[in-house]
Write a structure and sequence with these properties.
CATH class of the domain at 9-79: Mainly Beta
Number of helices: 1
Strand content: 35-45%
Shape: elongated
Oligomer: single chain
Radius of gyration: 22 Å
Largest sheet: 4 strands, antiparallel
Strand order of the largest sheet: 2-3-4-5
Distance between the termini: 64 Å
Order of helices and strands: EEEEEEH
Length: about 110
């Protein structure tokens, strides 16, 4: 099995998980046979490992609610829609500004005219 997340998720190294991720539903593949989906309840970290505590996963026969992952292991978190929209708006605004500066105020010799 080779889990790569969904379109509404982005991959981050487990070592980059922080306080802002608590409460988010995350997904990851801790081994070659299992994919985990759960709500992040807590994070503990050492230099080499990240320990994740999840809600909504445990209490089953073979299900755990705690996982230890190397800091480089990919974990999938929801895409931040607001940041993506903000970035897109800034990019579009920059292109509009560039187009306005490039075509409206240039003379025949392509220099600014007053």
């Amino acid at each position: 099995m080779d889990y790569t997340g969904s379109q509404s998720e982005k991959a981050v190294p487990a070592g980059e998980l922080g306080r802002s991720h608590i409460g988010q539903t995350i997904s990851f593949q801790p081994n070659e046979f299992t994919v985990v989906f759960g709500k992040l309840a807590g994070i503990a970290r050492t230099e080499a490992m990240v320990y994740l505590s999840l809600t909504g996963v445990g209490n089953g026969t073979h299900l755990k609610d705690e996982y230890d992952l190397p800091v480089t292991h990919e974990v999938y978190v929801p895409v931040d829609v607001i940041s993506n929209a903000e970035s897109t708006i800034k990019d579009l605004f920059g292109k509009v500004q560039e187009n306005l500066r490039g075509g409206v105020h240039k003379g025949p010799d392509r220099t600014d005219q007053v």
